[in-house]
């Protein structure tokens, strides 16, 4: 798992070096981000040497000609999306205030707003600064938002005063990281099958039929399920995404290959989520040689592919099945029909013509149609957030089923 360690400008910044080592002992990959203040106390080189990773110090790194480098900013935002947890230690009064108010004026503050990963902060400062109403108010705001605060210890402070303000012990901070990462484990013991991405249906050795699916939606579901403790099999069409941590990926190309992979993994799964955009038709035969161009119109005969979801659902037993519906009109009506015809328990409908929804976007706008009649229309959210909401609904439906099946 990947931890991003934000180091801010306080005397305790040197203690973050030891934290890197401890986190690595727990097999975490540590990416260090330093604020300008932190660099007054300790150099990036120390953290680069310890973490084995380039330390991020600026949102826009300067190129050799002195110009701001946009690519570095984009790459850094990718770091935000990959991180499993953001830890800030030591956290100054200044960074707490910025996080609380949503100020984004450097890489760390931008990362805090950009990431959906859990956040842990370990403050360290002068006792009066810690006790000040402004700091305490900011702490309350962050706590209410779900940020885990590792309270500072009491003792002799670098400023010569005694009281609360010393950075908490490194072991205590690492324990808070572990506790936060493994807190929402409501899919522990479950095996989740996820399909994602497009399929490619070959016409001849160089041409194929496909669609615009990037795999982002399905990968977000797989990642979220793994974070929530499930064993995850991700059956993926050709996409250019990294496999999420802890996920077992099976690559396929065609609908037929996806069908075979699903048939293999479905029996051992308790939850199956079909986010892939499977081709509905494929050429009746693949031409062995490249089709030659001539002046006549070309007619290609297509045949339907197997409905992978519907076939799996025929033997679903007590497995919970989630289907997707990519619609361009009559979204609710078509989604309800698919929920019933495919024998799914939950259907995630997206209007793929809506701005910021559907194929290839980082966001999606979906409505969740459940078998128990609940319709949940969600606003535009990141695909990671949508994935969490789908899994919340899965957990709710499983709990409901257990209540219905338990003896009275
Ligand atoms: O991958 P992204 O770029 O992030 O885009 C996300 C998405 C738009 C692909 C995703 O949100 C989505 O809508 N996925 C389902 C796309 C689709 O094929 O929808 P459908 O309405 O045609 O199919 C309904 C359901 O049947 C889907 O769960 C699909 O996986 C499944 N199906 C469809 C055809 C088929 N032959 N076999 C199937 O199992």
Helix-strand blueprint:
Blueprint: E1 2-7, H1 15-25, E2 29-34, H2 38-41, H3 44-51, E3 61-62, E4 68-69, H4 70-82, E5 85-91, H5 93-101, H6 107-114, E6 119-123, H7 127-131, H8 133-144, E7 148-149, E8 153-156, E9 162-166, H9 170-181, E10 191-196, E11 201-204, E12 207-209, H10 216-227, E13 231-236, E14 247-251, H11 255-265, E15 271-274, E16 281-283, E17 302-304, H12 308-314, E18 320-327, H13 331-341, E19 346-351, E20 363-364, E21 366-370, E22 375-377, E23 381-382, H14 383-405
Parallel strand pairs: 1-2, 1-5, 5-6, 6-7, 10-13, 10-15, 13-14, 15-18, 18-19
Antiparallel strand pairs: 3-4, 8-9, 11-12, 16-17, 19-21, 20-23, 21-22
Helix pairs in contact: 1-3, 1-9, 4-6, 5-8, 10-14
The structure holds ligand PMT.
Ligand PMT binds at residues 195, 213-217, 255, 274-278, 280, 305, 307-309, 323-326, 338, 350, 352, 358-360.
């Amino acid at each position: 798992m990947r931890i991003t360690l934000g180091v801010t400008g306080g005397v305790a910044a040197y203690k973050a070096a030891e934290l890197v080592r401890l986190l690595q002992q727990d097999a975490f990959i540590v990416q260090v981000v330093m604020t300008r203040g932190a660099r007054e106390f300790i150099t990036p080189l120390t953290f680069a040497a310890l973490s084995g990773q380039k330390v991020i110090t600026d949102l826009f790194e300067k190129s050799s000609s002195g110009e701001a480098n946009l690519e570095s900013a984009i790459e850094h935002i990718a770091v935000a999306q990959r991180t499993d947890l953001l830890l800030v230690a030591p956290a100054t009064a200044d960074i707490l205030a910025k996080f609380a108010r949503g100020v984004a004026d450097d890489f760390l503050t931008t990362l805090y707003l950009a990431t959906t990963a859990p956040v842990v902060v370990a403050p360290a400062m002068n006792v009066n600064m810690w006790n000040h109403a402004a700091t305490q108010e900011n702490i309350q705001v962050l706590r209410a938002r779900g940020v885990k605060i590792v309270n500072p210890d009491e003792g002799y402070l670098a400023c010569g005063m005694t009281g609360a303000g010393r950075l908490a012990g490194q072991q205590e901070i690492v324990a808070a990281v572990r506790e936060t990462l493994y807190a929402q484990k409501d899919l522990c013991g479950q095996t989740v099958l996820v399909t994602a991405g497009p399929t490619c249906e070959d016409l001849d050795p160089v041409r194929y039929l496909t669609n615009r699916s990037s795999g982002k939606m399905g990968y977000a579901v797989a990642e979220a399920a793994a974070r929530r403790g499930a064993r995850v099999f991700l059956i993926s069409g050709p996409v250019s995404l990294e496999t999420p941590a802890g996920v077992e990926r099976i690559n396929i190309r065609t609908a037929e290959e996806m069908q075979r992979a699903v048939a293999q993994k479905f029996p051992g799964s308790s939850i199956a989520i079909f986010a892939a955009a499977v081709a509905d038709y494929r050429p009746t035969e693949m031409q062995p040689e490249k089709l030659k161009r001539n002046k006549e119109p070309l007619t290609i005969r297509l045949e339907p592919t197997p409905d992978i979801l519907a076939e799996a659902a025929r033997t679903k037993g007590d497995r919970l099945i989630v289907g997707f519906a990519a619609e361009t009109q009559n979204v609710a009506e078509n989604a309800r029909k698919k929920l019933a015809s495919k024998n799914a328990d939950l259907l995630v409908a997206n209007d793929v013509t809506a701005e910021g929804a559907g194929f290839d976007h980082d966001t999606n706008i979906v409505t969740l149609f459940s078998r128990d009649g609940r319709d949940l229309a969600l606003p535009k959210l990141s695909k990671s957030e949508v994935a969490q909401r789908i899994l919340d609904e899965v957990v709710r439906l499983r709990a409901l089923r257990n209540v219905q099946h338990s003896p009275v």
